[in-house]
Design a protein that fits this description.
Length: 93
């Protein structure tokens, strides 16, 4: 989507919030999708933004230190609702 000029915003919730940790970004490789770090870097380079569920993060020990230097921030459910209303397309994959 970024390569085609679209704005990309990701809201990570539940166990997905752990994907923002450096150890996960640097070591996770998906079958057929490649290295997570490369995908993350491409999204950030294209102006993409990450939001992490604050409640999910707290429950899983993901903190502000995990977000340091990243294009990411903690967000509450009202932010997810706002993002859903602001964007013309959403999907879960």
């Amino acid at each position: 989507a970024i390569d085609e000029g679209h704005q990309v915003t990701l809201f990570l919730a539940s166990d997905a919030v752990q994907l923002i940790r450096d150890a996960v970004l640097d070591n996770l490789v998906g079958l057929g999708t490649g290295k997570l770090r490369e995908l993350y870097d491409a999204i950030v380079a294209g102006g993409g933004r990450f939001y992490l569920s604050g409640m999910s993060s707290k429950a899983r020990g993901v903190g502000e230190g995990d977000l340091s230097g990243k294009s990411a921030e903690m967000a509450m459910p009202n932010v997810l609702v706002r993002l859903a209303l602001e964007h013309d397309r959403m999907f879960t994959y």
